[in-house]
Amino acid sequence: MDILLELKNITVKYSDKIILDDVSLTIKKHDFLGIIGQNGTGKTTLLKTILGLIKPISGTIKKESKIKLGYVPQFSNFDKNFPISVNEVVKMGSISNKIIPFFKFSDSDNKKTEDIIKLIGIEDIKDNNINELSGGQLQKTLIARALMTNPDILILDEPTASLDSTSTKDIYEILHKLNKEKAIILVSHDVNVISSYVKDIACLNKKLYYHDENKLTTNMLNEVYGCPIDVISHGPVPHRVLSIHKEEKND
Ligand SMILES: Nc1ncnc2c1ncn2[C@@H]1O[C@H](COP(=O)(O)OP(=O)(O)OP(=O)(O)O)[C@@H](O)[C@H]1O
User: Fold this and answer.
1) Does 45 sit in the ligand 1 pocket, CB within 6 Å?
2) Please, which domain of life does this record's source organism belong to (predicted)?
3) What is the pTM of this model?
């Protein structure tokens, strides 16, 4: 079944406060999972736990050692004042955490950077300084950087927060293309945006409510948002979700 990653009964606490409560999740090859939840419901904590940056107090995470994870942090937190070009930001994605004195990029790093910049479609801005970029261009640059290690699972934190609808569509088109070879997990507090693009949706509110098949149930939304009708009435896709439910009732 090509399972890449398996979380079983994960509980995470900050001090005495439970942030993730008995969360289980399986990621398979070609999965494209969107995790939604309101602000502060533990989405970033879940990603950091998957990345091994936070240690759960109970539960297990199973991942084969050869499976690589790529992380795209919230781009709005990225310091754009650093004097560095798009090309350099992307290339730095190939550097491991170890500090190597007199490090020099290899020809293959340079070639890979060029290929990935082309794949993501940012050739025209590759020599620009990052402080000249729009939000969408910066996000593409950070995705390109995460691809330098050729990850099996690409993990993104709020990839389209504060982007306009054209840039959002652009980013999801890139992710859709990458999903042919990689599993993708992304988190967002914006149910209306991600439900249009991902294959599966899970809702997080300490506990993870998860169903296959990109289907938001009223119960899931209730558990997470408390007021499903309100959320459902604002965007195009949740209407589709609602109408699916109506059709199912008529069957
Ligand atoms: N290092 C920390 N120490 C203590 N509490 C923390 C820490 N990091 C996050 N928290 C708390 O844990 C809870 C979950 O935070 P997290 O960042 O995972 O939520 P989120 O769903 O990603 O939120 P947002 O949508 O606002 O980014 C919040 O109440 C937050 O204040």
Assistant:
1) yes
2) Bacteria
3) 0.84
